[in-house]
Amino acid sequence: MRIAALLVAITVIFSSISACAGDVTAAQGVIRAQEQAFARDDAAGAYSHAAPAIRELFPAPDTFMSMVQNGYPPVYRHKSFEFGDSKTEGSSVLQRVNIVDANGEAWEALYTLEQQPDGSYKITGCSLLKVGREA
């Protein structure tokens, strides 16, 4: 009986871990797709990965793209864009991204994504911190 209970516990733990890993993989796919849309200057493609709350703030793809170009230049144009640590919290994923901008400066981005009713993930926010700068 104890072995059966242990097997059930292990199965639950591993299914939870793989679900989290699947969520992180899906979220990283969304971030990467948006990054590639920025590289192509594809405003509609980049905008399609924004969560509804972001779309309310920026009701058109061109205004969204302008905000990113002006407010998030390391996200818009960079030399490197590599995933760092991630964390899942309920239906949210927090994903760190290490960025080297077009000028060779290092940045850390923290993306937040929320799972939508259809199961997809959308980006709810991105904060940038220049590496080496005091908070």
Any descriptors?
single chain; 135 residues; alpha+beta; Nuclear Transport Factor 2, Chain: A; 5 helices; 4 strands; 47% helix; globular; signal
Please describe what this structure looks like.
The protein is 47% helix and 31% strand. It has 135 residues and is of the alpha+beta class. The protein has one domain (2-130): Nuclear Transport Factor 2, Chain: A. The relative contact order is 0.15. Residues 1-21 form the signal peptide. This is DUF4864 domain-containing protein. Keywords: Signal.
Question: What's the gist of this structure?
Answer:
The chain is 47% helix and 31% strand.
* Widest beta sheet: strand line-up: 1-2-3-4
Using the coordinates above, name the CATH class: Alpha Beta
Oligomer: single chain
Major sheet characteristics: 4 strands, antiparallel
**Looking at the structure, what is the overall shape?**
globular
Count of discrete alpha- or pi-helical segments spanning 4 or more residues:
5
Protein name: DUF4864 domain-containing protein
InterPro entries: DUF4864
Organism: Bradyrhizobium betae
Keywords: Signal
Write the layout of secondary structure elements.
Layout: H1 2-39, H2 43-47, H3 52-57, H4 61-71, H5 73-76, E1 78-89, E2 92-101, E3 106-115, E4 121-130
Antiparallel strand pairs: 1-2, 2-3, 3-4
Keywords: Signal
Organism: Bradyrhizobium betae
Protein name: DUF4864 domain-containing protein
